[in-house]
Amino acid sequence: MNRLLLPVILSATFMSSFDYMVVNVATPSFQSDLHAGPVALELVVAGYAFTYAAGLVTGGRLGDLFGHRRMFALGMAAFTVASLLCGLAQSPAQLVAFRLLQGLTAAAMVPQVLALVTTAVPAPERPRAMAWFGAVLGGGGVCGQVLGGLLLDADIAGLGWRPIFLINVPIGVVAVTAALRLLPGGRGTRRPRLDPVGVVGISGALALALVPLAAGREEGWPAWTWICLAASIPAMAATLLWERRLTRTGGEPLLDLGLFRARSFNLGLAVNVTFMTSFASMNVVLTLLLQAGLGLSPLQAGLSFGPMAILTMVTSLLGRRLITRYGTKVLPAGALFLALGILAMAVELRALGDDVNAVWILVALCLTGIGGGLTLPSVIGAVLSGVKPDQAGSASGVLSTTQQFSGATGVAVIGAIFFAALGSHPARPDYTGAAEIALWGDLALAAGTVVLTLFLIRPAKPAAPSPAPREPVLDRRL
Fold first, then answer.
1. Which DSSP string corresponds to 236-279?
2. Is residue 108 pLDDT above 80, yes or no?
3. Binning pLDDT at 50, 70 and 90, where does residue 478 land?
4. pTM of the model
5. Shared domain check, 159 and 289
6. Percentage with pLDDT > 90 across the chain
7. Does residue 305 belong to any structural domain of this protein?
8. Suppose 367 and one of 128, 341, 386, 392 were both cysteines; which one would form an S-S bond, judging by CB atoms 3.0 to 4.6 Å apart?
9. Where, by residue number, does the polypeptide cross the bilayer (predicted)?
């Protein structure tokens, strides 16, 4: 395998994670330079997540139909153009529109990453590739906060916030060029026929749920948010019924429901849901505590997450060796580290109150970083372990959608708990108290992750007598 193949593939993971987080540190600049109001700022931050999550299943399916290299290159090229447009935006409306476009283009390229790891990387190298995927996924978001803060402080050529988007342009040009030269070609193994009802139904149902989850708190949870949330359930149910009918009649559904027959796929998705719900909401709560409660600047708050990101990357890379030595016990151990880190933070806040400082939080964050690094790559490997090559894009799209939707749900639910406990005129003690209450909710989710990992590593019961017992689903090479 060409040594440059994996860096090219993972560049999409890094860029999408980086751009998801980098705008968090730039919102004051958008407000002062473009005179963006609260609604525009909210859409700049959350609009990317809307279109990204809503388009992931479709993006994965397009890769299965038209070829993963082709969709990766097209998605990366479009993402690069969208980043350039964001950097050149002259009004809040333009920036919002280009961020929505950026999310859609990310949805086209990101599902191809895991699909290419599954199909283009040789089997002996796949566990190492999955470990690097986990490391880049964990580090990209934190790099967005840290590097974004540095770029804003540097004010390169007097451009202010614009370099946080323009930095993607040279990276994207190099990645597209390298992808066309290095990635294996060929069309998808299925006839190029897309399911328009599935595209509209799944994307629409996800949008009906994601928009109120992201905007509900800021808007005060008006009636339309609850109507949209309620409508998302029958919309998704009707779409799934259509997909099942299409499968039975020999059609080509957008969502391959055969994926959900695999025990490892379903349990892995369940672990992914509880893990991402807890992890994403914990990061948001701590960011609010560090900045609004403890008075840190966005750059200082971002740097506080640096050790956690480093440990996530290191343990992701070491995880496959640990599994080789200690077996599948490493997966629940990783989930346990996450739970212990959250528990340590909650206990610190209870014991120290408003005397808590970022150093105490940083120590506990290191435990969560170890937990994330041990858990995430192994869970992804378990989810994709039984996927056929012609299902790789669809499976990657479902997995990525689950991650995004779970993160948005966690931020909305745990965030609502945090702000309800915070009150209307909060002082520093109020922030520590609200963060403690929110972290107990995250701890419950982390405990659920531990339990689910125990089921995931159990051997699956064979359907018929077999001369040898089946191994646990989790690949020991991870």
1. HHHHHHHHHHHHHTT---SS-GGGGG-HHHHHHHHHHHHHHHHH
2. yes
3. very low
4. 0.79
5. no
6. 27
7. yes
8. 341
9. 40-59, 71-90, 96-117, 129-152, 164-184, 196-215, 221-242, 269-293, 299-318, 330-347, 359-384, 405-425, 437-457
* Three-state DSSP class for residue 191: coil
Q: What is the dihedral of CA 138, 139, 144, 146, to 10 degrees?
A: 130
Specify if 132 maps to a domain: no
Q: Do 305 and 248 share a domain, yes or no?
A: no
pLDDT of residue 345: 93
Measure the CA–CA gap between 247 and 255, rounded to whole angstroms. 10
Total count of domains within the chain: 3
> Which stretch of 55-64, 182-191, 223-232 has the lowest confidence by average pLDDT?
182-191
Same-domain pairing of 275 and 391: yes
- Residue among 63, 61, 57, 28 nearest 45 (CA): 28
> What one-character-per-residue DSSP string does 32-87 give?
HHH---HHHHHHHHHHHHHHHHHHHHHHHHHHHHH-HHHHHHHHHHHHHHHHHHHH
3-state class (DSSP) for residue 170: helix
Q: Smallest Cα–Cα separation from 408: which of 49, 32, 25, 6?
A: 49
Overall size of the chain counted in residues? 478
* Distances 181 to 11, 71, 184, 423 between C-alpha atoms, Å: 15, 14, 8, 56
Q: Domain range holding 119?
A: 1-125+137-182
Compute the distance between CA of residue 400 and CA of residue 82 in angstroms, rounded to an integer: 21
182-204 mean pLDDT: 75
Closest listed residue to residue 70, CA positions, set 11, 112, 16, 119 = 112
Do 432 and 289 touch, CB atoms closer than 8 A?
Answer: yes
